[in-house]
Protein 1
Amino acid sequence: MVGYGATTYGRRTGSLRLRPFPWTEIGAFTPGWSAEERIRAWAVFGGIPYYLKEIDAEAGLAEAIRRAVLYPDGLLREEPRFLLSQESRLRDVDTYMSCLRAIAGGVTRLGEIAQRIGKGRSEEARPFLETLEEMALVERRYPVTKASGRKVHYAIVDPFLRFWFRFVAPRESRLRSRRDADRYLEEAVLPQLDKFVSEDAFERVCQDWLLRRSADATEAGRWWGSIRRREEGRLRSRTHEADAVAVDERGAVLALGSCKWPDRATANHAHDAGELDKLETIRAELRAPNAHLYFFDRTAFSPRLRELEAERDDVHLIPADQL
């Protein structure tokens, strides 16, 4: 402990940014839960222990969302606003809230975010996003094979903030009572939860698995880009995306993955062989003939895809319970 008379009293002698737990550690807070249930829990509460401790493993995820996030007196009901208000450098908290709300709603390009938050030009929105990046609340994402460029998308880093801005922020003024929260949970949040998981969280779980799987992989993320192919005798450009791609330190592609997390209403929907053609097209575009192809799914795979896995050494089917 530094005394009042010390020359370093009152001065910062070092700093340490504590990172959230990786999703694989969430099992300590959800004992007995299946991998599927743990992935949903991480998609909602992320890896911050302060958030995760609100989960009662016996009561289940829905009850944790209800009690900690949606109820007017819930511990985390005002957490994002409180988090931003504690930063003395943020003089316009409402604009930062608007940035996060826009990104959570699917507006991820700089120019689009500027319009959504009422700024006329991209340059006016950029300082707000840069500050959120410095706070590790927002990050820029590029196709994993590129470290920079124009194909940038902004994303919310913390799953809980993404959940809050997706579900709580748009309805905050209407969630005035516990009864309101109960109805909203059953009618809106739970029916849309699997779609929410599929849009970012499950992809990040699969990317993490690819990174841990290969000793040579140094980075994993998404890839997207335009690919020209001959269709009906004409060259056409179409946008292609790979949900999970692992690369080595030279940027060479080691693996490409397709991730599907269907909701409970379509639980019998199987990951089919059509995705194989997509990944093979991307693999050819990236000149990575030796890259393995992975298919990640919450529920099932088509019989044809299972046949292809048995026939080929480069095709792998990974259900959620193996992640």
Protein 2
Amino acid sequence: MAKTGVVVSQDLIYSYLKEPRLKALFNFLEHDVEVQTYLRMGNIMAVRRLHYNDHGPTHSRIVAGSALEIFKILSRKITPSSVEEGLYAAEDARLVVLCGAYLHDIGNAIHRTAHHLHGYYLAGPIIDRVLAQIYQDDQELRLRLKAGILHCIFAHDEEVRCLTMEAGTVTVADGTDMAEGRARIPYRTGKVDIHSLSALAIRKVELAEGERRPVRIVVQMDNPAGVFQIEEVLERKIASSGIESWIEVVALERDKELKTLVANRSGSELQGVRV
């Protein structure tokens, strides 16, 4: 039987702040004027101007918590390549995940189009400032960590292949923020179509250790329209994440299993199995 999971929400991140460096990083991001202004500007661009769903600070917190949870589950069975390569320690890898997840959508402040590129260069000076506070005496390590964080931001777009476990967890976590109308398809608010109907169908997303794969993502929904969000967003995110062979997704309609998604043998795409 699969283990009980945790619910994806903006409260999940707070369970990871016992580590001093993660707490220091999170507090910096939450209170830094530049970070918060860019995130609010990103929401003005996405919500007010394009009439899309939320891409601001709340989304950042949700993705950060979800990414750290996925990373924790994977790390129980898999050593991140960055750690194996001696680039930094496991604790540092978690910091990369948190920072990359929190800042991944910052580029929306400039434009939704190519926002992963805009985010890459907006985030650079911010990362320099916060890492200088946390890793004061090791410039080389700061630069390695910065490269890892920027890779998370750049590669969260599903058209870019993730090359680290850290980036993969950020990309997948981005797609898990889909409960109660928060789906990652940028649907136009107030418009009734498959995008909005599927977004409103999803009630809860849970993360747990799986049986067939290390990570099990369970999506609870009120009606089958929610499958559209899974297929159009989460499935694509997983397929480009580089960690797709370690993840399974289960769609439930009122606790009845509708669909299971697992990576195919090549690991390059996902295949759906309807039950």
Protein 3
Amino acid sequence: MTQLTTHITVDRLNRYDAAFVMGLYERMVLIREFEEGVKFMFLEGTMPGTIHQCQGQEATAVGVCSALDDDDYITSTFRGHGHALAKGLGVQEMLNELFGRSTGCCRGKGGSMHIGDMTKGMVPAIAIVGGSVPLAAGMALAFKMQKTPQIVACFFGDGATSEGAFYEGVNLAAIWDLPALFVCENNLYGASTHIDKVTRVEHVADRAPAFGIQAQIVDGNDVLAVYEAAKRAADECRTGQGPVLLELLTYRRTGHSRRDACHYQPKGERDMWLARDPIELLGRAIVERGYANIEQLEAIRSRTETEFNEMVEIAKQQPPPTAQDLLEDVYA
């Protein structure tokens, strides 16, 4: 098992300039504040639909997407808010979408479980578990046939690796050497079932040799480790050495969905992972390195929360879709 980070050292931070590190931190804070704000709106009944949130998994989305080029694509899951924000979608267009407004990134037709924006390189998320894996293989095949340097990063959870679509999609990508980066966010639970109850192998990455592809197990709460692994994997995909499977070990602080109280998570396990919060890990290193002090980090959080609340009020005033909109964006 990979060593889980308990402290990001100054030496590691010294490999990067302050602007890059602070950018990672601010993006993770943005995801956390977005998710917390959305959670309370759902709980108080002011927002329609349902939610599957990613608090605690911010480093996986930010680390991977920071390693991608602007014209690369990602595919996502029903737990996709973090992926969207990390890939460059705006808070306003996402809030408009969550409120079902016509000015949302999917014109109010996707909602939380199908968030995305093709112009930002994110295919609207697929709620079918494992459903994005064969899609990513197809996209990667298109990039190869068109001889472009683009790659696709496909996010999925550990539960998806028990779906047939996972094996079919990864195998296709493998036999055709496609530029696909398969990213398993292993948060230990498929809904409420622990991964050790559904597989005899210790790691998802242990399945890679069956496909003949490279794999790496990464501390998914260490954003620098995720970035470094994703950057190497992306470079390999661009040079015809793909696909690559990354298994990012992480943990969600919230339940599977909004009505899940996480009672199935053992206290010792939960305490261990919460003590390794990805934002706090990087924040402590930033302060130790001198890139910012505690007050400046708190100011980032406070500013982000204020801006989020302002955008919520704007989203509430946006127009809903019309009956005519039912006839648009429909393809035979």
